[in-house]
Amino acid sequence: MAGFVYRYCVKQNHQQIKMDPSFRWEDETKASAAMTIPKDFRTFRIHNDTAGYRSGIETIALDDLNPGEVVIKTAYSSVNYKDALAGTGQGKILRTFPLVGGIDVAGHVVASTDKRFKEGDAVLVTGSGLSEARDGGYGDYARVESQWTIPLPTGLSLRDSMILGTAGFTAALALFRMIENRQTPSMGPLAVTGASGGVGSLAVDIFSRAGYEVHAISGKAEQAGYLKSIGASEVLGRDALATTRPMESTCFGGGLDNVGGTMLASLLAQTAPYGNVASAGLTASNALDTTVMPFIIRGVSLLGVASAGTARDIRDEVWRRLANDWRPAHLDRICTREATLDQLPEVFDAMLAGKSHGRTLVVL
Fold first, then answer.
1. What are the extents of the domains in the chain?
2. In whole angstroms, what separates CA 4 from the centre of its chain?
3. Which among 240, 257, 260 is positioned nearest to 248, based on CA atoms?
4. Domain spanning 166-308, CATH class
5. What are the residue ranges in the chain where pLDDT is below 70?
């Protein structure tokens, strides 16, 4: 290509190519594959109709995707617990069918009707209705709304951004909310339940990077070495949060709970005065059997973390922090697997069976 990398524009379903010597891809090896938007491309699509609930590889056209101002040539996506539930039908995640799965996407803009984004821009989208109310990131191309499209922050590669993805954003949003409510390292260690999972692993790394002592709580004793290698000062078994008493001696300054149920109630009962517990998951239970005593005696706060609908100004700030002072130090260690679209079903099954840890990066 004699030193030139191609840009592209879309006009009435026709792809036009023009040369721009000033443009450089973050990863130029992807440029030749992304010169045009083909008539058809591969996706991992989910259906629920008279033929039943099913998902798999399907070839579709751009016009089959939901409307949006920005078209992305996908470089990476990721697998979150929510993706596994949606892809298998074990959770009621999708509000409409059919949809392309994948709540995360990162890549380069190939077309945009929003002047804030131009062809070649590196961008990412997490949550924001992807693979819930609109087509997601499990495809060679994605069409998204510009209001939720984030320019790739300086300090992160596209690959980094999807190792983080919704999991990293959720962990960082939990810390953001706790700090807003006056959480400090001096209040004691932060507990992280479900610590070997995606959100948990990234929380361990992010919290320790932010200056907090982290106690990882996991039922996978074999992952203790892994958890210490990414920032945990202590690794505790699930029995550390097995109490059913309304109040216990304080052991933690606060924490992030990813499992719900008894463990969340026990964490609240062991949190120091005016500490914060962020609730971000329900892998064990959606129930919470507790009392008001931690709240009215110790002033403990229970904070909800709903990453998918986070306001844009907060979203931008959290991603800025993730690219700077909260940037995890062990992303390559936390990324324990790379998968293709074809491998998604086995990844989903392993995740739901509790046989995975860390993050799975989807490479397109």
1. 5-152+331-363, 166-308
2. 34
3. 240
4. alpha beta
5. 1-35
pLDDT in tens, 142-158: 999 999 999 999 999 99
CB neighbour class for 353 (10 Å; exposed up to 12, middle 13-18, buried from 19) = exposed
Residue 36: per-residue pLDDT:
76
CA distance 277 to 256: 6
Written as six digits, the tokens of 261 are: 């149920």
344, two tokens: 């998604």
Quickly tell me which residue has 């046989």 as its tokens: 355
| Amino acid in position 63 | D
- Helix/strand/coil percent split, the chain, to 5: 30, 30, 40
* SS3 assignment, position 162: helix
Residue 30 has a pLDDT of: 42
Ordered DSSP codes for 80-110: -HHHHHHHHTSS---SSSSEE--SEEEEEEE
What is the architecture, at CATH level 2, of domain 5-152+331-363?
A: Alpha-Beta Complex (3.90)
The pLDDT, as a whole number, for residue 234 is 98
Identify whether the C-beta of residue 102 lies closer than 8 Å to the C-beta of residue 44: yes
Residue pair 215/206 in contact by the 8 Å Cβ criterion? no
Find the length of the chain. 364
Buried b (16+ CB within 10 A) or exposed e, 199-211: bbbbbbbbbbbbe
Residue 292, SS3 per DSSP: coil
